[in-house]
Every structure is written in structure tokens, then in C-alpha cells.
Amino acid sequence: MDVSSPPPCYRRFSSRPGQVPLSGSELPAYSRRRHSISPPQPHREPTEHTFELLDGKNKPWITLKLFSSAKSSKSLPTFFEKEKITGKLELTAERGDSIQAITAIVSGRIISGASSSESFVFLNQTIPIWSKSLDSPRVPSPSEGASSTKLLGHCEWPLSVSLPRAVEIPSGGGDLRSYKLPETFLERFTTVSIQYDLAIIVSRGKLRSDNVIKTAFGYIPSSRPEPPSILRQLVYQEKLPLPIPSSDPEGWKTLRPVSVRGLMFKTRPIEARCTLSITRPLCYTRGSVIPCFITLEGRESPVLDVLSSPNAIVVKLRRRVRFYNRATATKREVAWNESVDDVGTAVWWLPQDNRNDTYSRHLEGEIRLAKDLRPSSEIAHFSISYSVVLCPFQAPNYSSDASALVSEPVEIATMYAKGPRPNAYAPPAYDSPSRPDEPHASYFCPML
Predict the structure, then answer these.
(1) Could you tell me which residues come within 8 angstroms of residue 326 by beta carbon, excluding any fewer than 6 positions away?
(2) pLDDT digits (tens, 9 = 90+) for 56-80
(3) In terms of residue numbers, what domain contains 317?
(4) Which of 116, 151, 431, 442 could bridge across to 93 with cysteines, CB 3.0–4.6 Å?
(5) What pLDDT, on the 0 to 100 scale, is given for residue 204?
(6) Residue 44 scores a pLDDT above 90
(7) Which of 400, 55, 378 is nearest to 211 (CA)?
(8) In contact, 183 and 194? CB cutoff 8 Å
(9) Is 332 found in the same domain as 423?
(10) DSSP 17
(11) Residues 210 and 357 reside in one and the same domain
(12) Does residue 26 sit within a domain?
């Protein structure tokens, strides 16, 4: 098994038995699709994963079986928040075997480099399974050979380990701060990772080496947005068109207006006023969408036509992964490493009730969120955060400053809000890939 591969998309199990027009003036009004995103999947049986240690005769003498929510037995075992790590441990002990104790250890680490000093343990649970001493805690076993002070023959123990929802970690000032367990994180272009491991340690006498059977596992926390506005819940339930910001002010966050300034043909200055809105609450479930609405206003209708082309408007979902290497140092003593990626791009179309006039243009849009997008998280010296960014417009023969025009922090969750699920509205010709873009920046940011 390749434990270095990131967990794919997972399903939860129950633990109980067209061609795009080039300008706004050419953009037709579409009858929008309104399809619900990712309908609920029925509960399925857990996936079994088997790990073995072989003896000198190439036969398994220790077998660890885990039951998880992973799609395949070839994937890492994966567990959701509130789910227990369940399984079974089997061991064959020969007469005269020197086993002193059997222990399970669950750990979670932030790994920011190859050395041990660049690995920070935020979770460490020790579960005694069997001990030679009758006074030590033991996991009840149905095997007769596990009932005395020595193991003999085939022995087995059921495993059931509860993971905490949060851990307490000392802050820079010495106080304890509570953090939710983060999701497993491992990506090719990012030098930091979050890894969880389960190890079974068979301890022997002082002159004998211990035996260890170990596997990484995936962990998925539970997080969900607050319900949207009452009007938007009704719209989702009845599969109706999404109300625009002026019709549902409680359901939208309208960002501050910005001036769009640039040059046409490198010589002619142009300017327009741009207002971007995104739906509230500012927390969105991965696998769904971030609905957007944009208004452009100006005194020159041809300029508005150029800027309101769906290909000219560039709105990105931007992710920041922030960490530092020296886990034991205070934040003022280290340089932060910040990896920045654009992981989603908005697509745009003309609303059904076209309200464009000589001095204004209005477009609807949405950012499709990948199903395997990592949720927002923070623990110790590691964090994943997101923002919606209005980037410089990109139109033929148009040039401008490269700085972002406006941005708004948002959160990504793993579960849907209570109530009806959101609908996607992008017309068929406008569907964009849900895969993240390539990283566009990675740099060190000194702490001031």
C-alpha cells in the first residue's frame, strides 16, 4: 500500500449493524439548469483493510484488520469525525514466546521537513490491548490463549478506538488552546503535510526487539455552513432561479465597489465601477458552488461590453496553506512559509431577467468547488484558509495593473448545511473543470 498517496474522495458508512460568446452584447440569456448537487448516498458496508507481519516461514503471525469509509481496500483506511477506528487484531503465539505487552498507538503529526525536529505531534493516544501483568488494563478477548500471563496459540482482540474531536495545544504565551483535528493533508507541491497513523506494538523482553505493524489513515472532520436565507432555502427546495442581491439582501454579501482602470490598445484610458457579490453565509460545502453576481457601471457602453464578456471577468477561489518549520519556536522567531494556489474559477452568464442598460451590465456566476477540496482548518503552526478574489480583467487589447481588485475571506466545509441542498445554475456551455489550478506562488513571509 502506498501510504504516501493522499486519500481520495470518501463516502460515509454507518457504524451501526456550447460555444461561449466573446462579448457581453453577444451573450444570450439561457434557461438555467437547476440541478441539486451531490444527492445523498445510501449508507454502505464498511471497507475492510488487512495488514500483516510474516514469520520466517512467510506466514502471517500478526494480522490487523480495519473497517473504514474508504472506497477501496487499496486506499488508506479513512474515518470521519465521530466514527471509531474499528477492527480486529489477530496474533499467533508459539510456546515460550517472550511477548510482554501489546499496545495500540494513534498519532497525528504536522510534518514540515525530513528531520524529527520538523515533525510536531498534536495527537498521541495509547491504548493497552494485552499485558503479561494481570493488574494492567486489557482489551477483553474471546481467545482462551489470551487469558493468562502468557499468550499461546491463536489470539484475537476487537479494536474500537474513539478519536477526540479536538485537542489542546500550548500557545506561544503558554496557555492551552483548543483546536479541531484537521483533515489529512498531503499534496505534491506543498512541503507540509498532516498525517495520522495507527501502530500496533508487540513488546518483548529487554534482549528482544519489538514488532510493529503500522498504517497511515485518513481523517475527515465534520464542518457545515449555517443555513442560507429563508428565500434561498425556498429557491433550492423548489428548483427556482436564484434571487439576485437586490431581491434577497440577507442572502448575499456585497463587497465594496472598486474602480476598474486600464488601457485599450495601450493608449486609451478606460474606467468602470465594479461591484461583486457572493452568497451568505460565507462558508461553502466542497463539491457544491459559490454563487456570484457582478455589476459593471460606466459612462461608455462599448467599454462595458468589453469588460462584461464572461471571459474577461476573473474571479478566483484562492487557498493559502501557512506553516513554519520550527514547531518549538515562538511565532516571532520564525519565518512563515505560505503556499498560495488558485483552486477554482468563476464562470459567468447573462441573467434570465436581463436588466442591462446603456450604463450598466449584470452577470450571474458561480465557482464550482472540487469534491476533494481540503476544508478550512487551523492547528498549532499550520492553517488552510480561503478567499474569493476579484482579479484584474482580461480582455483583448486591454491591459491593467496586476494587483487584485478586492477579496473576501470564506470558509470551506465538509458537510452540507441543514435544509435543502444548493443547486448549480451554470448553463451547460459554461461548466468549468472542478480540479484545482496549478500553484502560482510559494514563498516565505517573515513574521513581523
Answers:
(1) 117, 118, 333, 334
(2) 888 899 999 999 999 999 999 999 9
(3) 224-446
(4) 151
(5) 87
(6) no
(7) 55
(8) yes
(9) yes
(10) -
(11) no
(12) no
